[in-house]
Each structure stands twice: as structure tokens, then as C-alpha cells.
């Protein structure tokens, strides 16, 4: 059952007939009584249709699984703007998130840290019940790397909170100062003519002055002893 010869037959008819067998393998039943060559060609088209359909389904499933795995491992990209961004993580993180949850009307809170995402999620689950009202997006990465800051859309964030990384140990302040230096470049401070509001934690008070220079004296620097 192809296109009527009045519409051209020939190549158009053959193409339509082949596509029908590829897209609908059941169409092979319409070839009952046809010459053996036609039946074999129809069978080939039907088998190819099954292979193409199977490959397409496999590709879609693989893409979905990859996206879910990226979300689970925190290796995706942030496409939002106006979000709160927490860079680094330590035991003070849940207390800060609890404060944010009380503000209400916060679009999204993105957390970027070097620690294992499963550990971060465990900390959040063990935190106050109010944290469940926050739209949290945990992500894994180095907070002082430019490409990672771009990945979490730091330039589009409304507020950035810098915490001393637990995994950084004694070099936590170095990591914080490196990140402050990056965040105070035009790349992250020229969006819509406004400055992103930043607050940073410093472990050792001796490093507060250095951090202030890195932030160009435009953002508050808080030592751990004064932090929430």
C-alpha cells in the first residue's frame, strides 16, 4: 500500500513504503503473497526499524540516567539568577540555612563544597525541620576555581556566603581569600550594574586584614569566633 501512482510512484512510493515498514514493523503482514524479494526487503526494513527504535529508547534512557546521576553527584550547571550561594561547608552550615529558611521567599539556595555530597545531604537531613522548606541544590566542586564559580552562576547570585571548608584544614583561610579575590573581579561584580552581596568566614583573626584586602574592603569579613 504505497502512494497512488498519480502522485508519482517510483522513488516517492518506495520511500513511503520503506518508512512505513521502519516505523511500523507490523506492516510486514501487508506483504502477504508478494514476491520473495519484496518480502525480504520488507523484513530488512522492519528489522532496521526495531534496531533504530531500540537505539533511540536506549539513548533517551541513558540521557535521563546521566542527568539524574549528575544531579545526584552535584555536577550539573545552575541556570538561575537571584539565588543565594553558599561556598564551602562546615558545622555552621545548617545554622545558616536555618536562618535563611526563616526569611521566606528565597528562590533557591545553592551549596558548592569540596566535601562528599552524600555527607552534605546527611548534614541537612539531620538539621532542623525548617530546612525542608528551602529549595536546596547541593553541588560538589572547588570553590576557588573560576570554572566552578561559573558553573554555579556566582555572577548571577544575589547573596554569597563564604564558609571555611572543613576539608581544607589549616589552609581554609587561603581557600577563602583566593575565592574572595575571584569574586571581586569584574566578571562577578558587573552584572546589571550591581554588586553581589558577599560575607566571608575567616578561621584565624590574623588573616582578617588579608581577606579584607582581597575583598577590596567592600564586604564584611567575620572570624569564626564571631560567627553564627
UniProtKB/TrEMBL annotation:
The keyword Membrane applies. InterPro entries: CASTOR/POLLUX/SYM8-like. One of its GO terms (biological process) is monoatomic ion transport. The chain crosses the membrane at residues 38-64. Keywords: Membrane, Transmembrane, Transmembrane helix. This is RCK N-terminal domain-containing protein. It comes from marine metagenome. The lineage of its organism: unclassified sequences, metagenomes, ecological metagenomes.
